[in-house]
Write a structure and sequence with these properties.
This protein is of the alpha+beta class. The protein has a single domain, classed as Ubiquitin-like (UB roll), CATH 3.10.20. The chain contains two helices and five strands. The chain has a five-stranded mixed β-sheet. It is globular and about 30 Å long. The chain starts with a strand and ends in an 8-residue tail after the last strand. The relative contact order is 0.24. It comes from Thermogemmatispora tikiterensis. This is Molybdopterin synthase sulfur carrier subunit.
């Protein structure tokens, strides 16, 4: 099973866990297993068919946008990192 590391903002949806395990041979399969275990994560990570553009997803520290996206291969010893993009800035 792959290790899925969750950013602090996502942990409440996974019972407070910093990381969880999910299985699959592609990122899409790993995420489907993750959503089966923690349904509340789906809305934050992948509300539509594609990944939210506000979430950065890495497999072994490589951004999946520069790999094969949801079809990126994931092995049992791989690490998937989910990092929602942070909006910032203030008013002047």
């Amino acid at each position: 099973m792959a290790t899925v590391r969750l950013a602090p903002v996502l942990r409440a949806a996974a019972g407070g866990a910093k990381q969880v395990s999910a299985q699959g041979n592609t990122l899409a399969e790993v995420l489907a297993d993750l959503y089966r275990q923690y349904p509340a994560l789906k809305e934050q990570i992948q509300p539509e068919e594609e990944l939210s553009r506000f979430v950065n997803v890495y497999v072994n520290d490589q951004d999946v946008r520069y790999l094969q996206g949801l079809q990126t291969a994931v092995g049992p010893n791989d690490t998937v990192i989910l990092l929602p993009a942070m909006a910032g800035g203030g008013q002047e």
